[in-house]
């Protein structure tokens, strides 16, 4: 809001200030809350459609695409190709010591993305999506064991519920939750 001076005049609002008539009290928090829920909905749709489209593409009859090509192209398409080439030249050739330090984590990330294609090819989409959430559990356990972090009782209870949900889905899958295509191996998908 604009500040009122000694003579009753109002000073011009500074950068980032909101004029008196722009938003009513409480409207900013309502707009912020609405934006949070819209963002959550978009992320849910994006993640679900990603898994479903990968699953659909990997189970089509005929020749399959290489998962490694899909992983590389997904990373390339995340940014501007010209900037990527300039960045790679700078990072790989000029600052090669830093590149070597990041080689192990980047190779593990690439391996993880390739293994996702193996898993989604061998598991139903819903089973993959639920099982993939185990990364939350492993991250929490490693943060407690390796980083000496502490978790609240609510966080431990949430992790227990997550693990229980994944175990139930896996037990249903192992119990013969319906016919599965012959070229799928749930054990390989879970591993």
TrEMBL record:
Subcellular location: Golgi apparatus membrane
SUPFAM superfamilies xref list: Multidrug resistance efflux transporter EmrE
A GO term for molecular function: pyrimidine nucleotide-sugar transmembrane transporter activity
Pfam families in the record: Nuc_sug_transp
Membrane topology qualifier: Multi-pass membrane protein
Record-annotated membrane-spanning stretches: none
InterPro entries, sorted: EmrE-like (IPR037185), Nuc_sug_transpt (IPR007271)
Main localization, broad class: Golgi
Family listed: Belongs to the nucleotide-sugar transporter family. SLC35A subfamily.
Keywords, ordered alphabetically: Membrane, Sugar transport, Transmembrane, Transmembrane helix, Transport
Any one Gene Ontology cellular component term annotated for this protein: Golgi membrane
Name of the protein this chain belongs to: SLC35A2 isoform 15
NCBIfam families for this protein: nst
């Amino acid at each position: 809001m604009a500040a009122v001076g000694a003579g009753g005049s109002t000073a011009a609002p500074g950068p980032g200030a909101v004029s008196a008539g722009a938003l009513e009290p409480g409207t900013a928090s309502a707009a912020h809350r609405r934006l949070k829920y819209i963002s959550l909905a978009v992320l849910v749709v994006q993640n679900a459609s990603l898994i479903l489209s990968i699953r659909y593409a990997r189970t089509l009859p005929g020749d399959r695409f290489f998962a490694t090509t899909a992983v590389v192209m997904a990373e390339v398409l995340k940014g501007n190709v010209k900037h990527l080439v300039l960045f790679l030249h700078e990072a790989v050739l000029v600052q090669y010591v830093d590149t070597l330090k990041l080689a192990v984590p980047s190779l593990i990330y690439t391996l993880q993305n390739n293994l996702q294609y193996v898993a989604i090819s061998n598991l139903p989409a819903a089973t993959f999506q639920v099982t993939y959430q185990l990364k939350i559990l492993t991250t929490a356990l490693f943060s407690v064991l390796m980083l000496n972090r502490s978790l609240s009782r609510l966080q431990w209870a949430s992790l227990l519920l997550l693990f229980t949900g994944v175990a139930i889905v896996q037990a249903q899958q192992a119990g013969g939750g319906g016919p599965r295509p012959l070229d799928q191996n749930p054990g390989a998908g879970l591993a």
